[in-house]
Design brief:
Length: 243
Amino acid sequence: MTHVVLTARSENALHSLQNELTTVQSKVIAADLCSPEAPQTIIDETIKTFGQIDCIIHNAGTLGEAKPLADHTLNDITVENYQQSDLFKSFQINLLSVMQITHFALPHLRKTNGKVIFISSGAAVKPTYGWSSYCVTKAGLNQLNTVLAVEEKDVTFISVRPGVVDTETQNEIRNNAKQGMKEEDHNKFIKFHEKGELKSPDNVAERIVALTLHATKEFSGRFVSLEDEDVESLYKKHLSISS
């Protein structure tokens, strides 16, 4: 039987999702990635429950405050309040916690020749006005992917550009980010929603699952789009096996 660990801040949301997973054995670990002990706890609890790790999908992310860097209030950050700052939360959730979780998981991933999937963004390679923290941390995620591919030959690392997906982040951009973005940039996201051009999360998830199950070692270190020909080929293979 397939084993799945679900982790996020909201335990209620996790249990709701767990109830939908009727064909797998799953475990819920409610954790705040801004908490120093959370990354190791997630891995320790996973090993305690299931004994091994075959794949990690790093999907947590936050847009952070949308505004130019010059408009951020940084002069009042102190040692005492740093962890409450938007800057810390953006880097901790989008990048540092990913490094921490991966660090603690590596000994187990080596044993299974496992995979690590980083959910990145087009913002990693295309700057957007007002998104400095988001763009920088996603670019860092891509570079982490390439470095780990060099360092860890027994594990496969893939960074994924999922496209514009109908998630809570898109809702946040439309409703809360307008003042800190250029009008033409913000309007693009409004139109994506109005025209029904946002990707279905379920459709995106199916393609990511295909990567986790079927991607070969040649993928390691790559930044892929779900529309890439070889990624689409893996998805078709996955569908043929699953049907």
